[in-house]
Amino acid sequence: MLLFGNRKMPQPPILKIHEIFSSLQGEGLRQGEPTLFIRLTGCNLRCGFCDTRSAWEGGEDQTIAQILDRSLELRRDFPCDWICLTGGEPLLQDIGELLLGLKEASFEIQVETNATRPPQHPVDWYTASPKPPEYALNPELGEAARELKLVVSEELTAEDCLRLCSRVPAETPLILQPESNLGWSIEKGLGLLRQVLRSGKTNVRLSPQLHKILDIP
Ligand code: SF4
Fold it and tell me: Residue 38 sits in a domain of what CATH number?
């Protein structure tokens, strides 16, 4: 006799993980803070300037327990409060149970997202980073975001910046991030910053990628 008939036994949640590592947060307002990173595999966009293309595909299936074990092991060696889920696009996978587990382990949680998907759970810090050409911004995600981060790409215009700023709360800062710290992008970013300031939005900053300057992961 089959104990459970044809009914499927519940499977432990599995996530496709590209890498888990410790470093400093290199981007945005949290720049410089010691942070663990969980990079999830897969992205629904294909940005020309993407610097994490290796995370578009591949990765390793890991259970929530395995991911938590690895995170706690890293934290023993590099004690830090924050953990950042990034990608790829972390909100393409069902990260609910992972978020609960990380909270139980007393992590402060950041999720860096391209903002095309709604937030899955309240976390401590959503970074909304809409991407060209559409610059899609899910309205719920826009409300939840602690920062709006835009790569200063060839496509980005002051109109894009202002339109996106109008779709997040006024107190949400705008971070202009030069594309791979390239000179032309820094120069363009300074020009955009001036235009945004002149429009009346003052909580804006230009912020190069710190991890690339320091040559760390
Ligand atoms: S959204 Fe991010 S991870 Fe996805 S392709 Fe664009 S830059 Fe790369």
Answer: 3.20.20.70
